Amino acid sequence: MTSELTLLVLRLGFLALLWLFVFAVVYALRTDMFGHKARKLPPGEVPSAAQFPSAQAAPVPAPAPVPAPTPVAARASAASEPTEALSFSNDAPASRLVITSGPKEGMEITLGGEQVTIGRSSESGLVIRDDYTSTHHARLMLWNNEWMVQDLDSTNGTFLAGTRVTVPTKVPLNTPVKIGTTTFELRR
Asked: How far apart are CA 80 and CA 75, in angstroms?
């Protein structure tokens, strides 16, 4: 009688452990396929470092100095000199996304003011179908007239100029962003 009771308890314990394992696998697959819910910030609200507890504080580079405006007469004479060229305003954000390597190399996407989601999902603005890209991998968003990239807890990560992105990070023009086997740059 005692051995039958012990065997029954072991069977039930094993069954409970097996179901616990099944639920853990389903949760991991669900998280990889659909990602974590991200709340949308109201217009004008600035994200704080407290919203990203898992990220370590990274030094923020100082903004590049903006050259003083040149008088119209000086610009006209500079344009007539062959050695100097007029520079464009640094205030305008990138207007296109250019894929520089990967299966869709050469493809361009026109960027508007809306965010662009990137991943394997057919609902993404940029669909990348490879084994190293999550269903909802990353997002590009326009914030304070600058494009930011945010990794959406992807399995293999998002890399900006070779550095893994852990918090929303500014994407400078012509800087490579790598997601899976695809690399792209933002350009004017």
From this structure: 9
